[in-house]
Design brief:
The complex is a heterodimer.
Chain A: H1 3-9, E1 12-23, E2 30-41, E3 45-49, H2 56-64, E4 71-76, E5 79-80, E6 91-94, H3 106-116, H4 121-134, H5 150-162, E7 168-172, H6 180-197, E8 200-205, H7 208-214, E9 217-222, E10 225-230, H8 232-237, H9 242-247, E11 252-262, E12 265-270, E13 275-279, E14 288-294, E15 299-301, E16 310-319, E17 323-330, E18 335-341, E19 354-359, E20 365-367
Parallel strand pairs in A: 3-8, 3-9, 6-7, 7-8
Antiparallel strand pairs in A: 1-2, 1-4, 4-5, 9-10, 11-12, 11-14, 12-13, 14-20, 15-19, 16-17, 16-19, 17-18
Chain B: H1 14-21, H2 30-52, H3 68-75, H4 77-109, H5 117-129, H6 132-150, H7 156-180, H8 184-191, H9 196-225, H10 228-233, H11 241-250, H12 255-283
Helix pairs in contact in B: 2-12, 3-12, 4-7, 4-9, 4-11, 5-7, 7-9, 8-9, 9-12
Classes of the chains: A alpha+beta, B mainly alpha.
EC number (chain A): 7.6.2.11
Protein name (chain A): Spermidine/putrescine import ATP-binding protein PotA
Domain ABC transporter (chain A): 14-248
Chain lengths: 368, 284
């Protein structure tokens, strides 16, 4: 299923229209968000991915209501919430710093939202216990939050935000402070928690691997703009922008000129003269100079008797267990990487050797 | 392995570790400096306390231990009245100045930056910069004017004057506490459906607690201790303990004064210990 097919089936949980946010005034004004359009669907694990300063956290804070937009609107399940204060928005946030109340116990933290909603004591108690079980912290109910480990605090923050059963859960880099192993576990836990609760998750991260692992869909952001929205496969296999291709995973980018186009395919002459056919995708450049991209795993070594797409000199061979990267310097000075599954024949492939590479023709993309 | 610092596990980077191992006591002149400081600060108080227990009337010649001077001091109506006035004034000044200081601290840290915010900070702290005698005379002339216009008199003037000069002392620890508290906790409360008033009462105020307690205690001690402004403002029958002591000294120091002063020291020390305990408990 592609992103657009999902979009047709489900309703939007969060709709963002022409949303802009500027901090400061006059010469010191900084545009954090620039006319962002976005639909996050019901029951979706949606990730905002981008480098620091790209506006992803600002977008999250605007949805939560901690900041007010300079322009544009936000609606939640069709209801406009643009000007509502945070306590009137049925969304909850898991903060990067967890922001647990230090003067309350774990149970009091988790029950806080329900208490503020005026729920009866019995219900608060029951839900708190259910949440404690959900994050496996039953034994910690009476503890103060500073007596917990980082991972436990993280789970309390999660339980606290989930307890009032929000329509949308906002997560601001919640795993950033955890060590690698705990982070990997929490990624899977979060994913299954989202499936279990059926709540829409909006997850902010700068970690592309985390985004690919967890998300139903990803929005890649840069300088206050969304460059591409799609499923992890869309983003990885069919990047539309040079930035997206570069930010997520490893990629080879080569310069060329469009010779002719045929529907969604373009025939591109690379700088060394070889011709390749590449997917145009949504790229607007249909003639002249373009960049084409291909993942290292979609470039293979040319076998005996095959006509290579490109020829170059081996500069480096990096072996890392599951695969070997061969760095090839082309005649044009450009570099490409070939990812070969497993090891390569060391007698045949050595630095300095001239070898041929074949690019999978259907996996070459023209970039924006 | 006599030095406990070298036995710590190698947690930090080696560079940091070496620096941490350097012992303060090994620095040249440290012990001497420390002793000079301690003696200068506490020897006078020690002498004062010691002679409050003197059997003799002299405050320089020790003859034997007795609690007579304490009994005398506690029986002295002048001292008892002065102590009561001091406590009344200090309590009033503490409550008023702490409330005002809390509001001022919230306004200068929890609102959007406004024009003249630095000026407000300066205005609040002004009493710390201006010589106290100037403030005292200024307050005296203002109150004289008010008295002439309204015809009102009483201890209220003294209480108000104390409340005013206590504000900056209460303000400092409260503001310091607010500045270390991130806004995220308050945002988290709002995110969990707490309306602004609940955010304040359930999150801001409890977390601000240690700061408010510290501010209040500082205000109380400063009010209890004041001489110059009180000397100017206080009317008949409004003698505070420091003013009484000052008056008594003119007739010569007696161990009775030492006894009263020792009680004052004890109260201050008790307050400081209490403050420390409260802060420790609330920070956990």
């Amino acid at each position: 299923m592609t992103g657009t097919e999902i979009a047709k089936e489900r309703k939007a949980a969060v709709s963002v229209r022409a949303l802009s946010k500027t901090f400061g005034q006059g010469d010191y004004a900084v545009t954090a968000l620039d006319s962002v359009e976005l639909d996050i669907l019901e029951n979706e694990f949606f990730t905002l991915l981008g480098p620091s300063g790209c506006g992803k956290t600002t977008l999250l804070r605007l949805i939560a209501g901690f900041e007010l937009p300079t322009e544009g609107s936000i609606s939640l399940q069709g209801e406009g919430i643009t000007d509502k204060p945070p306590h009137r928005r049925p969304v909850n946030t898991v903060f990067q710093s967890y922001a647990l109340f230090p003067h309350m116990t774990v149970a009091e933290n988790i029950g806080f939202g329900l208490r503020m909603l005026g729920k009866p004591t019995a219900e608060i108690k029951q839900t708190t216990e259910r949440m404690l079980a959900l994050v496996q912290l039953e034994a910690m109910a009476g503890r103060r939050t500073d007596q917990l480990s980082g991972g436990q605090q993280q789970r309390v923050a999660l339980a606290r935000a989930l307890a009032p059963a929000p329509k949308v859960l906002l997560l601001d880099e919640p795993l950033a402070a955890l060590d690698l192993k705990l982070r990997k576990n929490m990624q899977l836990e979060l994913k299954s928690l989202q499936a279990e609760t059926g709540i829409t998750f909006v997850f902010v991260t700068h970690d592309q691997e985390e985004a690919l692992t967890m998300s139903d869909r990803i929005a890649v952001m840069k300088s206050g703009k969304i460059l591409q929205i799609g499923t992890p496969r869309d983003i990885y296999d069919r990047p539309t922008h040079r930035f997206v291709a570069d930010f997520i995973g490893d990629i080879n980018i080569l310069e060329g000129t469009v010779e002719r186009t045929d529907g969604y395919l373009a025939t591109v002459r690379l700088r060394d003269g070889s011709m390749v056919s590449a997917h145009l995708g949504t790229a607007s450049a249909r003639s002249g100079n373009v960049s084409v991209a291909i993942r290292p795993e979609n470039v293979r070594l040319a076998g005996a008797g095959e006509t290579p797409t490109l020829t170059g000199v081996v500069e480096n061979i990096v072996y890392f267990g599951a695969a070997t990267n061969l760095h090839l310097r082309l005649g044009t000075g450009e570099e490409i990487v070939i990812r070969n599954p497993g090891a390569v024949d060391e007698g045949k492939y050595q630095p300095g050797a001239t070898i041929g590479a074949i690019m999978q023709p259907d996996l070459i993309r023209v970039l924006e | 392995m006599a030095d406990p610092t070298t036995a710590t596990p190698a947690s930090g980077k080696p560079g940091h570790r070496r620096r941490r191992v350097r012992d303060l006591r090994a620095m040249p002149g440290f012990t001497t400096t420390a002793w000079i400081t301690i003696v200068t600060l506490y020897l006078p108080i020690l002498v004062l306390v010691a002679f409050s227990f003197n059997e003799n009337r002299s405050v320089v010649l020790w003859t034997g231990f007795s609690l007579d001077w304490y009994a005398k001091a506690l029986e002295n109506d002048g001292i008892r009245n002065a102590a009561w006035v001091s406590v009344k004034v200090a309590l009033f000044a503490t409550v008023i100045s702490t409330i005002v200081a809390t509001m001022a601290a919230l306004a200068t840290t929890r609102t959007k930056k406004f024009a003249g915010q630095g000026l407000v900070f300066g205005i609040i702290n002004q009493p710390l910069m201006i010589p106290e005698i100037v403030t005292a005379i200024a307050t005296l002339s203002l109150f004289a004017l008010v008295k002439k216009i309204t015809g009102l008199s009483g201890i209220g003037y003294l209480m108000l004057a104390h409340a005013a000069f206590c504000i900056p002392f209460a303000y400092m620890p409260i503001r310091a506490r607010l500045e270390t508290m991130t806004l995220t906790l308050e945002q988290a409360a709002a995110d969990l459906y707490a309306p602004p008033l609940k955010v304040f009462t359930l999150v801001t105020l409890p977390l601000l607690g240690p700061g408010i307690v510290a501010g209040a205690m500082l205000a109380f001690v400063v009010s209890l201790d004041d001489v110059i402004i009180t000397l100017m403002i206080a009317g008949p029958g409004e003698t505070t303990l420091p003013i009484y002591i000052l008056g008594a000294i003119r007739r010569g120091i007696t161990p009775e004064i030492n006894a009263v002063s020792t009680i004052l020291v004890a109260v201050s020390v008790l307050l400081v210990i209490l403050l420390f305990v409260v802060q420790r408990r609330m920070q956990r």
